[in-house]
Amino acid sequence: MMKMVLQTTKSIAVSLGLMLLLPLALYYAIQVANPYPEYNPPHHNESAQSEEGKAANQAYQKDHQLQVQKYESIYFYTSLVVGSLLIIIGAFAAFDFFGFGFIMGGVFSIITGYFNYWSQLNNLIKLLSLLGAIALLLIVGLVMARKH
Q: pTM score, two decimals?
């Protein structure tokens, strides 16, 4: 009995570890491949705050905002794809605790992608991507139910 409890506890620890570490690993993989754009506006001394300096600063801010939007878009779509793959891998995992960890890691990966890009998405894309994620989870649930 004690051995079974210990094994269950270890399985839960592995599941929770995967659930938390997979999205974190995805975050840093995206950072390595596509770092968040740094904000380094052009510096002007106070006497040089001419119209030309203000225009250069505004142009830089606009360019930086476009870079941030591109980064957030890449993060969102990468999270959606990788998160979906993690869910699928979890459905076919040989051990339930691996499956749980991968499925929840995939769900959290998708959620972090939404957090980063939600305000940029139009309502139709929000609806379609959420319905797609729900459909994927339902399909995975059916596949898993048939395995047992």
A: 0.82
